[in-house]
Design goal:
Blueprint (H helix, E strand, L loop, with lengths): L1 H10 L17 E2 L5 E7 L11 E7 L14 E8 L6 H15 L16 E8 L5 E11 L5 E14 L4 E9 L7 H6 L2 E2 L8 E3 L1
Length: about 200
């Protein structure tokens, strides 16, 4: 049994850096120096079913990979993709499934049966007290990296469209902690860089 678990761990990648493609001059999310950053280009090597052209930036607070940390598995990423308008909830759901299946190796044949065969996702368009439109939902998946247990990630997201450049930006924030946990105070203040589409960016 122990050997089987080792096989599972060995087949998965322990850091996003193993697949980071480092596109030049990308700076999507405004953070301070305490956050780690990694960059990717679509199509993603680990999730090639995602049919986008663009880039991704992922940011990580200290402790995101520590099972004892309040920030465990809590992080954010932004997509900048070529599009003529907003990504629908269904498009986001499907591509988040592809993303986490690829990231966690759930779309590959394995020698060990896992309780979760593939990720599932739910994304719902909502509005806050000020009328700002955003999205909330959850990802159900399997943590092949650290705990080897089923995992639910809560997610909130904001989507913007740069009309002049015909680009859509989506900022996703994730955590297994409920929305009342302290880590969300750090995740919710993350924003896209204002220089990405000055005077043109519109929130959906």
């Amino acid at each position: 049994m122990i050997k089987s678990i080792i096989v599972v761990i060995g087949l998965t990648f322990w850091s996003f850096g193993a697949f980071s493609q480092e596109p030049a001059s990308i700076d999507l999310i405004a953070t301070d120096s305490t956050w780690g950053k990694e960059h990717f280009t679509f199509p993603l090597r680990f999730a090639q079913k995602i049919d986008f052209k663009g880039v991704e930036e992922a940011v990580f607070p200290a402790g995101w990979g520590d099972v004892e940390s309040p920030a465990f598995w809590s992080y954010a990423f932004a997509w900048q993709v070529e599009a003529n308008g907003a990504l629908t909830e269904n498009v986001m759901e499907v591509n988040l499934q592809y993303y986490f299946d690829g990231l966690l190796g759930l779309d590959h044949d394995r020698k060990v049966e896992l309780p979760v065969k593939a990720s599932t996702s739910l994304v719902v368009r909502t509005g806050d007290a000020t009328g700002t439109t955003h999205y909330a939902g959850k990802i159900k998946t399997f943590d092949t990296r650290f705990t080897q247990k089923p995992m639910t990630l809560h997610v909130i997201a904001d989507q913007y469209f740069c009309q002049k450049e015909r680009k859509t930006f989506v900022l996703f924030r994730f955590s297994p902690k409920g929305f009342d946990a302290e880590i969300w105070s750090r995740l919710k203040i993350l924003e896209l860089q204002k220089h990405l589409c000055p005077q043109q960016m519109r929130k959906f």
